[in-house]
Automatic annotation (TrEMBL):
<dbReference type="InterPro" id="IPR023213">
    <property type="entry name" value="CAT-like_dom_sf"/>
</dbReference>
<dbReference type="InterPro" id="IPR051283">
    <property type="entry name" value="Sec_Metabolite_Acyltrans"/>
</dbReference>
<dbReference type="GO" id="GO:0016746">
    <property type="term" value="F:acyltransferase activity"/>
</dbReference>
<keyword id="KW-0808">Transferase</keyword>
<dbReference type="Pfam" id="PF02458">
    <property type="entry name" value="Transferase"/>
</dbReference>
<protein>
    <recommendedName>
        <fullName>BAHD acyltransferase</fullName>
    </recommendedName>
</protein>
<comment type="similarity">
    <text>Belongs to the plant acyltransferase family.</text>
</comment>
<keyword id="KW-0012">Acyltransferase</keyword>
Length: 453
């Protein structure tokens, strides 16, 4: 089944011209499918579509090259959707109002937008600091996941640059998490490179992880759990920047945090790279914010629960199988203790989030379900999403690895972090950080944070 073309003449900006829209369906008939959203999915209905940007170098000003790339991407998309067909569906509700993912062959499928920004080079967009043009290169800014009842669950914008292509993707976060996102992206890339089948098909049986029928009262869908308005407010005081920590820097941070033994119920246990780096970032952001000794600060990590639930779910589980884990302390305790103090708090919180804790969290939420906003990560928070384990630089569609990968502006707030493997390779890690501008200025001057001292 060929992609359905729906070419439209839509609004333009000085930097970018949108030339067409189309919709891509699975390459074969799937039939009617329904899959109930679980307790792990439903809280994200009041988040925004998850946005990812991948930048690829191509030939200078070659229209044929771009058209060939788009054709290849669309064909590969139609093939990968045979397994990931849920992304070509929509969010619906059954007769009792329980949310689910619905698919049938008459639905429009994944939306593909084609655009041109041929005065801009890839190098201009792969710098550390975010620019305003990035927002134009990825669709669905400010669109809530709940709107997936009326909009595609995946939208892909392919923009031709002077010397390459930008792929901007918007995924409905109520339908999938980061692990599922990059499973889909790597599968799509493999098929575009000629693979006859994917290495691993998505595991679509969400009920195996949690099978509770939960009804949400969404009469006021834009109100978060703390009663604040979840609609995004423009904040010119926030800055978005990538900090790269080399292998050497990572080793120094890990060595410093593991310098002293720390008490554990079962004896000393070394801190992981994630725990060491997280504690390093938490401490230095708290300093950059000029927190008073008595002020509280919260570290939040959206942890993958695939191996934590009972029974464990496969890595290929498709959906959300994450939960937010919170750690809180005062600035005084964070500042006056040795570096392993913050790491030990994070380690204890993550280690304690086992199958029993997950089940108890789910039962509490199911007894009083409510959606929460993307800002509900705690006071003076440092919140970590994504993971350096995601192989984002292996997403090669046949014209080389991406020159850079980053997130769009959705679901970002003061203190939000996305971790990626460093584009320089090895064990380096890129930290994409959103922070209030004055705090960001102070952080940029912090040589200990940058590991320059």
């Amino acid at each position: 089944m060929a992609p359905v073309e729906l070419v439209k003449n839509i609004e333009q900006s000085p930097n970018l011209k949108i030339t067409s829209k189309s919709h891509v369906k699975p390459n074969k008939k799937i039939g009617k499918k329904e899959c109930q959203l679980t307790t792990f999915d439903l809280p994200y209905l009041a988040f925004y579509y998850n946005q990812k940007l991948l930048f690829y170098k191509g030939n200078d000003d070659d229209d044929d090259d771009f058209e060939g790339m788009v054709k290849k991407l669309k064909h590969g998309l139609s093939l990968v959707l045979e397994d990931f067909y849920q992304l070509a569906g929509k969010i619906g509700q059954d007769e009792e109002g329980v949310f689910r993912v619905e698919y049938d062959d008459d639905m429009v499928g994944v939306e593909v937008i084609e655009a041109v920004a041929d005065e801009i080079e890839v190098a201009e967009l792969t710098v550390a600091e975010s620019s305003t043009i990035l927002k134009e290169l990825v669709p669905y800014t400010g669109i809530l996941n709940l709107e997936g009842m009326h909009r595609p669950l995946l939208v892909v914008q392919l923009t031709k640059l002077k010397d390459g292509l930008v792929m901007g993707c918007a995924f409905n976060h109520a339908v999938l998490d980061g692990t599922s996102t990059w499973h889909f992206m790597s599968s799509w890339a493999k098929i575009c490179c000629g693979a006859l089948s994917m290495l691993s098909s998505p595991f679509l049986e969400r009920a195996k992880a949690r099978n509770m029928r939960v009804k949400l009262d969404l009469s006021s869908p834009f109100v978060t759990s703390n009663g604040s308005d979840a609609k995004p407010k423009p904040n010119s005081q926030l800055r978005d920047k990538i900090f790269t920590f080399s292998e050497l820097a990572i080793d120094k941070i890990k060595s410093t945090v593991n310098n002293n033994d720390h008490p554990q119920s079962n004896g000393p246990k070394s801190f992981s790279t994630f725990q060491a780096l997280s504690s390093h970032i938490w401490l230095h952001i708290s300093h950059a914010r000029n927190l008073k000794p008595e002020e509280y600060t919260v570290f939040t990590v959206f942890a993958d629960c695939r191996k934590r639930v009972d029974p464990p779910m496969p890595e290929t589980y498709f959906g959300n199988l994450i939960q937010a884990i919170f750690t809180i302390t005062t600035a005084k305790l964070l500042f006056t203790h040795t570096p392993e103090f913050g790491a030990s708090l994070i380690q204890k919180a993550i280690g304690g989030h086992n199958a029993k804790a997950i089940d108890e969290r789910n039962k509490r939420w199911e007894s009083e379900p409510k959606v929460f906003g993307f800002k509900d990560a705690g006071i003076n928070s440092v919140a970590v999403g994504s993971s350096p384990r995601f192989k984002v630089y292996d997403v090669d569609f046949g014209w080389g690895k991406p020159k850079n990968v980053r997130s769009g502006s959705n679901n970002k707030f003061d203190g939000m972090i996305y971790l990626y493997p460093g584009k320089s390779g090895g064990r380096s890690i890129d930290v994409e950080l959103t922070l209030e501008s004055q705090a960001m200025e102070r952080l940029e001057q912090d040589k200990e944070f940058l590991m320059e001292a």
